[in-house]
Write a structure and sequence with these properties.
The structure is a homodimer of 323-residue chains.
Chain A: H1 3-9, H2 13-24, H3 29-38, E1 45-51, H4 57-70, E2 75-79, H5 92-98, E3 107-111, H6 121-134, E4 139-144, H7 150-155, E5 160-166, H8 172-183, E6 186-190, H9 197-210, E7 225-228, H10 237-253, H11 256-286, H12 289-299, H13 305-317
Parallel strand pairs in A: 1-4, 1-5, 2-3, 2-4, 5-6, 6-7
Helix pairs in contact in A: 1-2, 1-3, 2-3, 2-6, 8-9
Chain lengths: 323, 323
């Protein structure tokens, strides 16, 4: 027990990869390792990068890795985006570009398929962050696809959220209106050489000025900045790195950084409690005669799932569920 | 008790809207109504419509509604797409277009924000399907955003999945590779007047011919068809409607339609069991002194969430969690 943790605390990539596999497989042994790692975490700066497919997140991440490495910072990447080259969703060109970093020991990339997680993507991502944090990564980049629920969930797991947009898609503003505006600490307008980039910049400024950001005159409040980049040509990356660093400092000085770790711990606790409970009851149910009978009733549409759930819980927990 | 159900079984829109609100608010009273409705469900043809923002899902849904209504079929729409006009994520033009149906009693539209669901979007969507099914809707359309986890989860809740693509986005194929191919029963290439539509059609044909669809020579196996549409101009919709009908017949003749309902019931059962258990234990924990102490340890990083979870469960359930 704890062999993997020992390796991980020494930044050993093989040990980390092994534990990550156990986490993905929901192997109960992973929990024992995570227990040993937890007190060594809370140090990495966790950065979420979200945006629609086609916004160039992968080349932006590539440019960020390059810059962080030039400044001797170690980097972990967790890709939960099905269209990311990291997760195998991309065309060959992107994949080759990413191999820039494949021989660099200071970069660790983990891709997560976005389907098939019993407990939701956020649980697995949170555990992957714990592993990379324990490895001593200075920076952890979490890439998400930027439509729907995933990136709002992931937002809770990161210190700094970067929303990547491109001009000309037309739908960017729709996506912003749909809630991405609320989660952004930094906006990146990528492919800034496109003619529509400036128009998009104006749109975001207008949206920001209408939003709650300006309602509060508290000078401590973070106002999201807009960075124009051409990540493929490495343009605008220095300014973005400065913005990221400023947000980190802001987050540390206002207590947000520490608060985040408490939030994450609390969330991890709740998820593992629900996990344990769920495993426990369904294991017990497997061989239970009453459950089999009730399940038959359900399959024959003789009874509804809600009534059956109450019967089962009364049967097992020996007390009435209170409404 | 059961007032809303009575209304819903008579297709009353106000009763349905009220129950849906209770479902969204996780009001426990919703469960009592759902119990009464459940045995009246399993009749609607549930159709998932997924695709990237900008693929024109909303105008396609608009055209489908029009067609179904012309054939005297009643329609429910559940939109879980943050960029959908139904969920308020769209520009004004789309919103006006949708108002075509706002005075039609045979159409019921429910939009779901994609964030803030404690139990995940699939639980809420499943319950909304139950309500619309009990209302007697012939067709239920479920719109999702088509990147990441949501639409894979939603796939399990529908009989027929339509994947909407457009030429020229370049990223469509990436999205297909990323798993959308596996979930499609019907492909729609929308905005087929765009020059790249035929290229995309060829790409999909090639991908399909490489996939497992053709490996099985069983004549009962469904081969996904590709429909070219211009939904704004109502072109190609008739063919799409025929495909949908063919898939419904296929699904009914092969038992998939009935199997789906059993799967849904089983899923609903598991979700409500986990819900009840979770509510139960966190309610108990709220006032528990040991929990408060352990939570303080967690916040001070003196103990890890996994060890704390075990302590709590041992304390409450009075027996050891087995690894």
């Amino acid at each position: 027990m704890g062999n993997l943790s020992n390796g991980i605390l020494k930044a050993d990539i093989k040990s980390a990869a092994k534990l990550m596999r156990k986490i993905e497989e929901e192997d109960i042994k992973a929990i024992e390792e995570l227990k040993l790692l937890y007190s060594h975490t809370g140090h990495s700066h966790v950065i979420g990068i979200t945006g629609l497919p086609g916004s160039g997140k992968s080349s932006l991440i590539d440019a960020l890795i390059e810059n962080f490495r030039n400044n001797n910072k170690t980097v972990g990447v967790i890709a939960v985006d099905p269209t990311s080259p990291f997760t195998g969703g991309s065309i060959l060109g992107d994949r080759i570009r990413m191999q820039n970093h494949s021989n660099d020991e200071g970069v660790f990339i983990k891709s997560l398929p976005t389907k098939g997680w019993r407990g939701g993507i956020s649980k697995v991502t949170s555990r992957m962050i714990t592993v990379m944090d324990a490895m001593g990564k200075d920076i952890i980049l979490v890439e998400t696809a930027g439509v729907g629920q995933t990136e709002v969930e992931i937002k809770k797991l990161v210190h700094t959220t970067i929303v990547v947009l491109v001009g000309g898609l037309g739908d960017s503003i729709q996506a912003i209106k749909a809630g991405i505006l609320e989660i952004a600490d930094i906006f990146v307008i990528n492919k800034a050489d496109k003619i529509d980039a400036e128009e998009l910049e104006t749109d975001i400024y207008n949206l920001l000025s209408m939003s709650s950001y300006t309602e509060n005159n508290n000078s401590r409040k973070w106002l999201p900045q807009i960075c124009l980049t051409e990540s493929v040509n490495r343009k605008g990356i220095d300014k973005l790195i400065r913005e990221i660093s400023m947000h980190e400092n802001y987050s540390k000085s206002t207590g947000g950084f520490a608060q985040y770790f408490k939030y994450k711990s609390n969330n991890d606790l709740k998820e593992i409690i629900v996990d344990y409970l769920t495993n426990l009851i369904f294991k017990e149910l497997e061989n239970d005669e009453l459950y089999k009978k009730l399940l038959d009733d359900l399959m024959d549409n003789k009874n509804d799932p809600y009534s059956i759930a109450e019967e089962i819980l009364n049967h097992f927990l020996k007390f009435k569920i209170k409404n």
